[in-house]
Design brief:
This protein has 7 helices and 17 strands. The protein is an alpha+beta fold and 358 residues long. It has a 7-stranded mixed beta sheet. Strands 3-4-2-1-17-14 form a 6-stranded mixed beta sheet, with helices on one face. α2 crosses α3 and α5 runs parallel beside α6.
């Protein structure tokens, strides 16, 4: 059976294919998230504190460095999902991107341009000027509409502060209504309360979207700046650890057990955090047949509508430092005041969805 499943996945190249002895056909979709770690252009955006990413700023951010950063980011984005789908992901949420110009330049890089990637971006109020965005392949995901729901500070003393909101993109995938929320919760420089509040606001947004369409396939992704078991995710958002724990209209967070196994997306103090999460609504789960931590044969999942199939942390050798004191850590753009010509301090994450095709 293992060889049979391998053969099935090899057939899932662009879409529809014969897959089992019962001649069932499936289509597979990859959905990813990646923190691009400060994708800035070299020009000042009025009203934003982007001075360290200017040619005369602290990072000496020149045109050469910017073009290298674009090249590196596009390489990762283009390879995400190709472990199972040579055409890569249908949609990828990104964070820490300065503006639409950066996204235009990014999508013009050959690996992405060849596939026709587009993007959704709405300028946000973050003081540094970094936003979230959604890259997508219009052949696989068709955008209906998009909005930026603001993160609201509720303490009076925070009335003059502003940070990244919740980019909410509604679209069609596999003929179904799919909504993706891309966000970047307040950093660890702030106390847990602000991320917990972010989780609560995400929950309220989820409730609103599911009230409008109870059948919507909802995907919440982003750099949460917290791990799956932290209060913002486990309590405020209510994303469950086990598939069978997910209530009707609830959420499942597949990354709890990944972190518990010692794997993560962000190295810290000799260990790993897993801030880069993709959380799924109950409408994407086959709770009868899926089992936590165990791969289930494709033919045993009810794929009559779009369903979760697999998840992974995207890893390539080139994303890691290969020598020195920090060997094994992620290879960043800058570290210790030096330009490393690297990628990001985070690793990307991916979930795979599948649907039976008649």
């Amino acid at each position: 059976m293992k060889k049979s499943i391998t053969f099935i996945m090899l057939l899932l190249v662009i879409g529809v294919c014969s897959a089992t002895a019962q001649e069932k056909k499936y289509q597979l979709y990859g959905i990813g998230f990646y923190n691009l770690e400060n994708l800035f252009d070299t020009c000042h955006d009025a009203g934003h504190n982007d001075y360290e990413y200017l040619p005369d700023g602290r990072n000496r951010w020149t045109g050469l460095k910017y073009t290298h950063k674009l090249r590196n980011m596009s390489r990762v984005l283009a390879e995400m999902g190709t472990d199972r789908l040579p055409m890569g992901c249908a949609a990828i949420g990104v964070s820490e991107v300065e503006n639409a110009k950066c996204l235009t330049d990014l999508c013009d890089q050959e690996p992405l341009k060849e596939r026709g990637y587009k993007f959704v971006h709405i300028e946000g109020p973050d003081q540094r000027g970094v936003d979230c965005a959604l890259l997508y392949n219009p052949k696989l995901f068709q955008v209906r509409d998009a909005k930026l729901v603001p993160y609201i500070y509720i303490k009076p003393e925070d009335s003059l502060r502003a940070t990244r909101g919740f980019l909410t993109v509604s679209g069609t995938m596999a003929g179904e209504h799919v909504t993706i929320i891309v966000n970047h919760l307040p950093s660890r420089g702030a106390v847990s309360f602000y991320r917990e509040e972010g989780g609560r606001q995400l929950f309220e947004l989820k409730q609103q979207l599911m009230a409008e369409d109870p059948d919507v396939k909802l995907i919440i992704m982003g750099d949460m700046n917290d791990d799956p078991q932290d209060k913002s995710m486990a309590e405020s958002l209510g994303a469950r650890r086990k598939i069978k724990q997910v209530e009707e209209g609830g959420l499942w967070n597949p990354w709890w057990d990944v972190l518990a196994s010692g794997n993560g997306t962000l190295p810290y103090d000799g260990g790993w955090n897993l801030f880069d999460q993709i959380i799924l609504s109950q409408t994407l789960l086959d709770q009868k047949h899926m089992k936590d931590g165990k791969d289930v044969e494709l033919k045993k999942i009810d794929c009559s509508s779009l369903k979760y199939f697999r998840h992974q942390i995207f890893r390539r050798d080139y994303l890691f430092q290969r020598e020195g004191k920090y060997k094994g850590n992620t290879l960043r753009t800058h570290a210790g005041g030096s330009w490393l010509d690297g990628y990001s301090d985070h690793l990307p994450t991916i979930v795979y969805l599948v649907k039976e095709v008649n």
